[in-house]
Protein: ABC transporter ATP-binding protein
Organism: Kitasatospora nipponensis
Amino acid sequence: MARGTRGRRSRAAAAADALAGLEESGPHEGRPAGQPTPPVIQVRRLTKSYGHGDATVHALRGPSDPETGEPMGVSLDIEQGDFVAVMGSSGSGKSTLMNILGCLDVPTAGRYLLDGIDVGHLDEQQLSLVRNRKIGFIFQSFNLVPRTTALAQVELPLAYAGVRAAERRKRALAALALVGLGDRADHKPNELSGGQQQRVAVARSLVTAPAMLLADEPTGNLDTRSTSEVLAIIDGLNATGRTVVLITHEDEVAAHAKRVLRLVDGQVISDVRQGPVAGPPPVLAAQLAGAHQSPGGQGELIGGRR
Ligand SMILES: Nc1ncnc2c1ncn2[C@@H]1O[C@H](COP(=O)(O)OP(=O)(O)OP(=O)(O)O)[C@@H](O)[C@H]1O
Ligand SMILES: [Mg+2]
């Protein structure tokens, strides 16, 4: 175990050096103080197709070129601190877009700049480092490791990042406490409710303090109460500065976002702002306003950035 971990750590360290080089030469470096932060996500003419010829599926296509009829791709900016809900019917391309934004998949064509880095120029090792450092993932099916305690699940991304055991444990326990599961650290997935399992997954996604949280239907398998709990945590994380991109089919969930994109057949057909990029997201803002009006109310923000 120790030998394997050491090998992984040194490869990770080499990749970290490579990434640091890329970041230094990126557009964010040398920006004069006071200059607005560039969008954390910049997508240009992105397409994703599967298959060939007549059987081609354009999972992401954007509008068609009026002359040639060819897909022109999806172009999109997402500001740092925004909370974007992606909606659309089954097969409209939501997960395809999310997987590309999360560097889990590559586009057929187009450019994707994450935090100023053109991810198309990164090799597999650098991509996994970007995923580990910059992005937290939450999936509908939780994706927890079976027969493994909540604490070990949450420590995992820190182990990949080469964090030492004592520090890992400390940070993982803090993340579990943040999602209200401080007393469930020793529980395995089959000893937790669905909502608790998803909160473990949320703790795992935030333990590395990533700048961006990507969630693909995080409440799709949850009952109403667990949905509210998980959304309250996500609201709090966004209020403290994390960018959130969340796929959902439900209007009640999308109401938590500051901006709502709707996809139809691989194309963004509407883009509606529900709240300003800065400050808490709409539902939390309303709760805070209510708490402000009634002195006995509670308006605690969850999830400070470390
Ligand atoms: N690996 C693949 N091979 C072929 N076609 C694919 C593949 N992955 C996705 N597709 C197709 O791409 C389209 C978009 O799929 P995607 O998973 O992005 O949809 P979605 O909006 O997330 O749907 P859902 O709400 O059901 O999760 C669909 O028509 C799907 O069949
Ligand atoms: Mg999907």
